[in-house]
């Protein structure tokens, strides 16, 4: 190891840097899922939406040369999946969990199908903002290269909290999520509100997917996402349906996800795959610790089937 | 009657939608349908391929269908299959030299235990801690796949397997042979027997009656004094054992060793099979054969029409969404001639 290398200190540094990098898809999916779940429905299909967003964003960025256009199209693809989820769920006797599983399958299938031609070419990447200019260490500098999408997500989280609490839209969304019957009695169109909430959630999940292909890891292939979508759904439960808590939880999960690669970088290759499973183990441990057999979770929208 | 008609109509609608989809990218839907039929059921050769794929599908579908009787949605079949396969391979390697009639059942038991532990774990978490079983079973599935990768690249790696890390191959006499007169392994019989047993258990025993009562109304079941927790944990463990057995069959009859090829999507297809079969263990058999056929035709679509291997996934996704959308039709559609008979929902 040469002198500029921080050696073992590289591990926490890489975990921190990784936390920021790896957390962004978690952040967007969880914010989207948070919105959807606030309306009283769960969309497990965001795993498929994430992959679809990654593929479509990459394809468009490659085709047009503009990564931001890719992000937008990824969001729109996600919106489409959100609308599909909401439309099927609004039919009679349809279980939202089952629809989510179906869309998980459809989303990944479509993405793999349409994404075949984009596995080889290199698309332009999203820009990062350099917060490490003050440091002379290469590792610190690269750790503090923060992507613009992460910053957008970080701003979006408190904005959503504010919006849910103080705007008319937020109010209606929460009423629908707490009691569809009360909302109906007050004259609010329950299914349409849920449609908007699921579509918006899909948009954010699609954007989260575009981050995977357009920044980190930064290319499109079929192994790009392995469960980040479903982990993010579980993360919303852990974050008690609070967007700002979603932000902190995403950072935590990102850190867990960065542990494997960080250790590998300093030469610990033993158990690489087990460290890769760290986010899932963490999710499960958190779900076990925070759930209860006897009473409902605090802060859960009362209409949500998944916590019942 | 509608219990059969509605899924069949959903299937037909999905095929039409899939046809429209391939037409959009410039492939003739008629060619696709014809090749799918040829690849799945067109010849004795394709029938054997189809049935070979149906064997693990029956078992992974049971992994979703059994807990569904209790109203649970379990989607961890892939993980239970993988873990079962790993346990079977490890057992076969550890007992090398012992007589096959001892080792093969031991492999099956180890696989079932591993699967039961995984999915039964999700059931126990649901009962003990109120953890949602859908999410936990999928997370456990990812963890199981990570464990497989860890074992075949680390402790159990065969140094001779260079480009595809695997365990050492099983001894020849520990592998499962083919049925007499055809090139389909005994796993198919295992699957069919398990499906029949599952049906008998759920429809003809008090255990099954109690389980379905919990599925209908958990609170009423608890009031009636049924041991809800035990029913839940036993059923999910059984479900996991089925998928674990699928893993043993794949290792002992198809791959001969454990490696990442085991993660072949039998778990996710099994979920769809269970839903299309309306969670009925008997209906799982024909539906699994149908999807075995769709899977078997994938290769032909790829070679002849240049369609990506993900076409099968797209079709499965379309079928799943259409099927769920048709759910509201049950009990609604009236057949003109049967209108006076009570409708079966």
Chain-wise SSE layout:
The complex is a heterodimer of chains A (308) and B (345).
Chain A: H1 10-38, H2 46-64, H3 67-89, H4 96-115, E1 128-130, H5 138-143, E2 145-147, H6 148-166, H7 168-178, H8 180-185, H9 190-214, H10 228-238, H11 243-265, H12 272-276, H13 278-290
Antiparallel strand pairs in A: 1-2
Chain B: H1 2-24, H2 29-41, H3 44-68, H4 77-94, H5 100-129, H6 133-153, H7 187-204, H8 206-216, H9 218-223, H10 228-255, H11 266-276, H12 281-305, H13 311-325
Task: Explain the overall architecture.
The complex is a heterodimer of chains A (308) and B (345). Chain A is mostly helical. In chain A, helix 1 packs antiparallel against helix 9 (190-214), helix 1 packs across helix 10 and helix 10 packs parallel to helix 13. The longest helix of chain A has 29 residues, at 10-38. Chain A has a single domain, classed as ABC transporter involved in vitamin B12 uptake, BtuC. In chain A, 68% of the residues lie in helices and 2% in strands. A two-stranded antiparallel sheet of chain A has the order 1-2. By secondary structure, chain B is an all-alpha fold. Chain B has a single domain (30-172, 182-329), classed as ABC transporter involved in vitamin B12 uptake, BtuC (Orthogonal Bundle), CATH 1.10.3470. Chain B has 13 helices and no strands. Chain B has helices at 2-24, 29-41, 44-68, 77-94, 100-129, 133-153, 187-204, 206-216, 218-223, 228-255, 266-276, 281-305, 311-325. In chain B, helix 3 (44-68) packs across helix 11 (266-276) and helix 8 (206-216) packs across helix 10. Chain B is globular. The model of chain B is unreliable at 338-345 (pLDDT under 50). Chains A and B meet through helix 4, helix 10, helix 12 and helix 13 of A and helix 5, helix 6, helix 11 and helix 13 of B.
């Amino acid at each position: 190891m040469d002198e500029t290398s921080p050696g073992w200190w590289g591990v926490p540094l890489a975990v921190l840097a990784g936390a920021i990098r790896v957390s962004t898809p978690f952040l967007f999916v969880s914010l989207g899922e948070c919105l959807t779940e606030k309306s009283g429905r769960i969309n497990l299909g965001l795993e498929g939406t994430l992959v679809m967003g990654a593929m479509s964003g990459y394809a468009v960025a490659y085709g047009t040369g503009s990564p931001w256009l890719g992000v937008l199209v990824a969001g729109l693809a996600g919106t489409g999946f959100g609308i599909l989820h909401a439309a099927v769920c609004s039919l009679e006797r349809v279980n939202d969990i089952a629809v989510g599983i179906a869309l998980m399958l459809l989303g990944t299938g479509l993405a793999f199908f349409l994404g075949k031609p984009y596995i080889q070419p290199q698309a332009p990447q999203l820009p990062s903002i350099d917060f490490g200019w003050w440091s002379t260490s290469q590792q610190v500098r690269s750790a503090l290269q923060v992507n613009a999408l992460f910053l957008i997500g970080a701003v979006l989280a408190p904005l959503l909290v504010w919006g849910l609490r103080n705007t008319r839209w937020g109010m209606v969304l929460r009423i629908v999520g707490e009691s569809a019957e009360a909302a109906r009695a007050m004259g609010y169109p329950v299914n349409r509100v849920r449609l908007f909430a699921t579509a918006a959630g899909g948009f954010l999940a699609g954007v989260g997917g575009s981050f995977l292909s357009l920044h980190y890891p930064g290319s499109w292939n079929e192994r790009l996402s392995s469960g980040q979508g479903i982990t993010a759904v579980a993360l919303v439960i852990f974050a008690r349906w609070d967007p700002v808590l979603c932000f902190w939880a995403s950072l935590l999960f990102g850190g867990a996800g960065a542990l494997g690669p960080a250790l590998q970088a300093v030469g610990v290759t033993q158990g690489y795959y087990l460290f890769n499973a760290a986010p899932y183990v963490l999710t499960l441990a958190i779900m076990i610790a925070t759930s209860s057999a006897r009473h409902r979770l605090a802060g859960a929208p009362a209409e949500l089937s998944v916590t019942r | 009657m509608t219990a059969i008609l509605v899924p069949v109509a959903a299937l037909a609608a999905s095929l039409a939608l899939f046809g429209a989809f391939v037409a959009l990218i410039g492939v003739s839907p008629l060619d696709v349908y014809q090749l799918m039929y040829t690849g799945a059921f067109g010849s004795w050769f394709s029938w054997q391929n189809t049935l070979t794929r149906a064997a693990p599908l029956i078992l992974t579908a049971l992994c979703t269908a059994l807990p569904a009787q209790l109203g649970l949605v379990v989607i961890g079949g892939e993980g239970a299959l993988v873990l079962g396969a790993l346990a079977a391979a490890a057992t076969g390697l550890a007992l090398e030299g012992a007589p096959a009639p001892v080792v093969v059942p031991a492999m099956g038991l180890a696989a079932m235990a591993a699967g039961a532990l995984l999915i039964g774990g999700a059931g126990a978490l649901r009962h003990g801690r109120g953890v949602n079983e859908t999410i936990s079973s999928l997370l456990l599935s990812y963890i199981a796949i990570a464990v497989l990768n860890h074992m075949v690249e680390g402790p159990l790696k065969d140094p001779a397997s260079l480009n595809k890390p695997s365990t050492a191959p099983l001894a020849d006499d520990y592998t499962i042979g083919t049925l007499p007169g055809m090139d389909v392994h005994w796993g198919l019989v295992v699957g069919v027997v398990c499906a029949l047993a599952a049906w008998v258990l759920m429809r003809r025993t008090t255990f099954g009656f109690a389980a379905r009562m919990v599925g209908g109304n958990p609170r009423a079941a608890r009031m009636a004094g049924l041991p809800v927790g035990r029913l839940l944990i036993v059923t999910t463990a059984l479900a996991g054992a089925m998928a674990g057995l699928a893993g043993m069959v794949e290792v002992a009859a198809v791959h001969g060793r454990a490696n990442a090829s085991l993660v072949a999507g039998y778990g996710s297809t099994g979920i769809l099979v269970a839903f299309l079969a309306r969670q009925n263990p008997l209906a799982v058999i024909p539906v699994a054969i149908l999807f075995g056929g769709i899977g078997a035709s994938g290769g032909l679509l790829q070679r002849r029409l240049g369609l990506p291997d993900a076409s099968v996934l797209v079709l499965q996704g379309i079928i799943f969404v259409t099927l769920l959308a048709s759910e509201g039709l049950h009990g609604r559609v009236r057949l003109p001639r049967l209108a006076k008979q009570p409708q079966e929902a």
